[in-house]
From TrEMBL:
<feature type="active site">
    <location>
        <position position="273"/>
    </location>
</feature>
<keyword id="KW-0229">DNA integration</keyword>
<comment type="function">
    <text>Site-specific tyrosine recombinase, which acts by catalyzing the cutting and rejoining of the recombining DNA molecules. The XerC-XerD complex is essential to convert dimers of the bacterial chromosome into monomers to permit their segregation at cell division. It also contributes to the segregational stability of plasmids.</text>
</comment>
<feature type="active site">
    <location>
        <position position="179"/>
    </location>
</feature>
<keyword id="KW-0131">Cell cycle</keyword>
<keyword id="KW-0238">DNA-binding</keyword>
<keyword id="KW-0233">DNA recombination</keyword>
<feature type="active site" description="O-(3'-phospho-DNA)-tyrosine intermediate">
    <location>
        <position position="282"/>
    </location>
</feature>
<dbReference type="GO" id="GO:0007059">
    <property type="term" value="P:chromosome segregation"/>
</dbReference>
<protein>
    <recommendedName>
        <fullName>Tyrosine recombinase XerC</fullName>
    </recommendedName>
</protein>
<comment type="similarity">
    <text>Belongs to the 'phage' integrase family. XerC subfamily.</text>
</comment>
<dbReference type="Pfam" id="PF00589">
    <property type="entry name" value="Phage_integrase"/>
</dbReference>
<dbReference type="GO" id="GO:0006313">
    <property type="term" value="P:DNA transposition"/>
</dbReference>
<dbReference type="GO" id="GO:0003677">
    <property type="term" value="F:DNA binding"/>
</dbReference>
<feature type="active site">
    <location>
        <position position="250"/>
    </location>
</feature>
<comment type="subunit">
    <text>Forms a cyclic heterotetrameric complex composed of two molecules of XerC and two molecules of XerD.</text>
</comment>
<keyword id="KW-0132">Cell division</keyword>
């Protein structure tokens, strides 16, 4: 089984262009099932065993995950990973299993992300200047990153994947390679370009066209964890809620566009969502805001509603 799993992970990274992080999550999920299945049949499982697994086995695995206090969301993802592995086995090794298709995923409540107050984003500029007063180029870098994510709705990984050549000449738009190697075009605001220009003028290294745009203090490409720490410092400095994260900046971009009249299809393209249902979550956010306004301000709202 180890060879088949390794082959599948290689397929995800080399053929499907999945990130190492995503491929590792798939591998963790699949090996969790294999470990359970080993104990379930009392022997090391083979490809033939994988073909024979039935609905009782799959449900027992999911119940076992529940006993280990693993969240429904985690188990839903694990089941999806296992389904993907079975599809690969059917295609590459002629291993077929119909039972996996009969298993329903656990119901996962879809939480609504919270948007950041625009005023709080504006306050981040002065906070960054104060925090990084000793290193003006770091302050310029951090503000450029914040404005890029907030102004273009990028994921952290997308922002950090940009190279100098991508922003040379102040382009009107950026060509972004998102999840699953899906490419999209995202407009870029002049204010974002101004912040990037200031940063690139001040930084002491990483100026070659193919160098990563965002650099660490030591001159290496900036990592996602470094970017998260930038927002963490701002959150603590400004005493903002815990939900203020890099993703919340992207979420604020989306809710602002929807509130401004953007249609869902256009928003889906800008965000790089593969499914419209993901984008539709933002309509629920907007409705929650509308209902809150109604309950507190509408003259026909009852006293109890208020």
């Amino acid at each position: 089984m180890n060879d088949a799993v390794a082959e599948f992970i290689d397929y995800l990274t080399q053929t499907k262009n999945y990130s190492v992080h995503t491929a590792t999550a798939y591998e963790t999920d699949i090996r969790d099932f294999i470990k359970f299945y080993d104990n379930y049949i009392g022997a090391d499982v083979s490809l033939a065993d994988f073909a024979r697994a039935d609905t009782i086995c799959f449900r027992a695995w999911m119940a076992d995950r529940g006993r280990r206090n693993l969240a429904h969301k985690s188990t839903a993802r694990a089941l999806s990973s296992l389904r993907g592995f079975y599809k690969f086995l059917a295609k590459k090794h002629n291993v077929h299993n119909n039972a996996i298709g009969l298993i329903s995923s656990p119901k996962v409540p879809r939480k609504l992300s919270k948007a950041i107050e625009v005023s709080d984003v504006e306050h981040m500029h002065d906070a960054i200047r104060d925090i990084d007063a000793a290193e003006p180029w770091i302050a310029a870098r951090d503000w450029a990153l914040v404005t890029l994510i907030f102004g273009c709705g990028l994921r952290i990984s997308e922002a950090l994947s940009l190279k100098n050549i991508d922003v040379r000449g102040r382009p009107d738009s950026l060509r972004i390679l998102g999840k699953g190697a899906k490419e999209r075009i995202v407009p870029i605001l002049p204010a974002v370009l101004d912040a990037i220009d200031k940063y690139t003028r001040l930084r002491p290294f990483g100026t070659a066209p193919d160098d990563a745009l965002f650099r660490s203090v030591r001159g290496l490409p900036m990592s996602a964890r470094m970017a998260e720490k930038v927002i963490e410092k701002l959150r603590h400095y400004l005493q903002l809620p815990d939900y203020v994260t890099p993703h919340a900046l992207r979420h604020t971009f989306a809710t602002a566009l929807l509130a401004g009249g953007a249609d869902l299809r256009s928003l889906q393209e800008l965000l790089g969502h593969s499914s419209l249902s993901t984008t539709q979550l933002y309509t629920r956010v907007n409705m929650a805001e509308i209902m809150n306004i109604y309950e507190h301000a509408h003259p026909r709202a009852t006293d109890q509603e208020k």
